[in-house]
Design goal:
Layout lengths: L1 H16 L2 H8 L5 H23 L7 H25 L4 H22 L7 H18 L8 H20 L9 H22 L11 H26 L2 H8 L2 H13 L5 H19 L6 H6 L5
Helix pairs in contact: 1-9, 1-11, 2-9, 3-8, 3-9, 4-7, 4-8, 5-6, 5-7, 5-10, 6-12, 8-9, 10-12
């Protein structure tokens, strides 16, 4: 049962993540990349720390874990910067294809090599189906003049897989809320340093669309952070990567509903294939019990 709850948690996280491409377009260049990141994380800390204190969800952090928390936060900062830059420079669909195809493949590699997960025939079929669906969902074309932005999207995909799976280092030792807050603390530290080093503009907080969107993304990030930690606590890295591949489906849907971007028949078919692959990876022949997943750790 926990296996299915973990799958549902990742599916909800993917749906919420689907809003981030729209958020990036709304914020645009009004807020600098690192500035918007650390201010958003300050908001998250203001919201989540009181809850942790009241519910006593905090425990002392071991020295070695502190280093891994810092690494995960640094990955998050670089990931966010790459994704935001790519979303605002090239077609949203192209960024989704490159980043999520890379992320899914990286998740499979990490699961197979480092976590010793079995690469079954069922998973290979689901992977092929989902990648085919991703291509149909957005179509695919590259412009040589935008090659660096495509590389950023690929880098973001690898970092996304690493960030997701690093949660396995902590999920059995700390509360979900503490993991999210530790992420935010280090993201604020790294973000402020990056803002100062790059001499970013730091406009005052206002009720502009960009600031409201940044705040909304922060609130949603609390939910996605907790859902990712909870989901990967009970789901294999490979299966979790396939479930998260539904994010581009939700991203296309939100782009259609909010930004008015069109959706073609091929996109609907592609979205259907991705959803089918996620269902297949979750329901058919779960090879590993929830107990096995909880004990699964990233090597130190």
């Amino acid at each position: 049962m926990k296996h299915y709850r973990g799958s549902f948690a990742l599916l909800i996280a993917a749906m919420l993540y689907g809003l981030f491409g729209v958020f990036a377009r709304i914020v645009g260049n009004e807020l600098a990349v690192f500035y918007q990141s650390w201010t958003r994380n300050v908001l998250i800390l203001c919201l989540i720390i009181p809850w942790i204190v009241v519910k006593r969800r905090w425990k002392p952090v071991a020295g070695n874990d502190m280093l891994w928390y810092a690494i995960r936060a640094l990955v998050a900062i670089i990931l966010m910067s790459c994704t935001f830059t790519a979303f605002n420079a090239v077609n949203i669909g192209t960024v989704y294809i490159l980043s999520y195809a890379t992320s899914t493949l990286a998740g499979f590699c990490i699961g197979t090599i480092f976590l010793k997960e079995r690469l079954t025939q069922n998973k290979i079929y689901a992977l092929g189906l989902s990648l085919m669906g991703l291509m149909l969902l957005y179509g695919f074309s590259l412009d040589a003049d935008e090659i660096w932005f495509y590389i950023l999207a690929n880098v973001a995909g690898v970092l996304l897989a690493i960030w997701n799976l690093l949660s396995k280092k902590f999920s059995g030792s700390y509360s979900n809320e503490q993991i999210v807050s530790m992420d935010c603390i280090f993201c604020v530290i790294f973000g402020v340093c990056a803002s100062l080093l790059t001499h970013e503009a730091m406009p005052s907080v206002s009720l502009s669309a960009a600031w409201i969107t940044n705040a909304l993304q922060g609130i949603i990030s609390i939910a996605t952070g907790i859902l990712i930690v909870y989901g990967f606590k009970y789901i294999e890295a490979q299966k979790g990567s396939l479930i998260l591949l539904t994010e581009p489906v939700f991203g296309a849907l939100f782009a259609f509903l909010i930004l008015g971007e069109g959706m073609q028949v091929a996109a609907l078919i592609g979205g259907g294939l991705i959803i089918v692959s996620a269902v297949v990876s979750t329901i058919i022949h779960p090879e590993t019990s929830s107990h096995d997943i909880i004990s699964e750790k990233i090597p130190s």
